[in-house]
Amino acid sequence: MWTDERVARWRATGWRPGPVCVWTREQTIEFLNAIAGHKRYLYYHLVAVTGLRRGEAAALREVDVDLRHRELFVVTRPDPGEQIDDDGKLKSPHSARTIALDHVTIGLLRRYLTNRATLPAGPGGERYLFTIPTGMPCRRDLFTHEFEDLLTGRTQLPPIRLHDLRHGAASLSLAAGNDLKSVQEMLGHASISFTADYYISLYPSTRHQAAERIGASLFTASPGRVHRARLPLHNRRVAGTATRCLHRPAAATKI
User: Fold this and answer.
1) For 165-182, what is each residue's pLDDT tens digit?
2) Contact partners, residue 224, CB within 8 Å, separation at least 6
3) Cα distances (angstroms) measured from residue 10 to each of 3, 64, 164
4) Which residue of 103, 119, 150, 170 has the fewest CB atoms within a 10 Å radius of its CB?
């Protein structure tokens, strides 16, 4: 996770925390705001919000969008001769899935589809979402290079890969309060353990919230005080002794 401390270290030395780097919520918003108005903004928005693989997003067709029910259908169509997906794993039936969409994304899709209504269809009469002027779908490597150019040309954000936006979407979903099963299904993973082990980065705020929940379950007193009933037995005796010493009335002075 690109925390403020890690960003400062990267700016000073060029250091990176690891091969997979994830933006915070604020950094993700900053990137999307910086590229607003770009002709393929919707592509990066979808990856950042829904965690689509870069190839899945590139292969989306107009018929895969259900505006009425606010859903997106992901149908895996690998290129000829291609047998592995962007995760380096064999394609799984779980990759074909239905993703629920928020109202902001639906609004973006509705405007996008309206504005491109006159564009030509692609091969086989398919109307792809992200195309070149002839109607042919954009190659996935176009988005990889374009993402790098947008990142360095329009922002001063710390570096991540396009695929790391997918990791970020998983972490954002969990931080928003969604359970791990929901995150797994959104990403199209066959195993919930794979999602947890390789795709979830905890935000600092999430870790602190977890710590506070543990504290709340143990200590019922106000912050700064430990309820006597919650202390282990030996500590209770010590605490009680200290209390009696502090509040013992002074001996009367003999005259």
Assistant:
1) 999 999 899 888 888 888
2) none
3) 11, 40, 17
4) 103
Nearest CA-CA partner of 99 in 63, 79, 69, 127? 69
3-state secondary structure of 137: strand
Alpha-carbon dihedral sign for residues 59, 138, 167, 87: positive
Cα three-residue angle 112-50-175, rounded to 5 degrees: 135
CB neighbour list of residue 63: distance below 8 Å, 6 or more residues apart: 127
Name the pTM for this structure: 0.75
* Torsion sign (Cα): 106, 44, 130, 38: positive
Q: Is 98 helix (H, G, I), strand (E, B) or coil?
A: strand
Beta bridge partners of 21: none
pLDDT digits (tens, 9 = 90+) for 48-95: 999 999 999 999 999 999 999 999 999 865 443 344 344 433 356 668
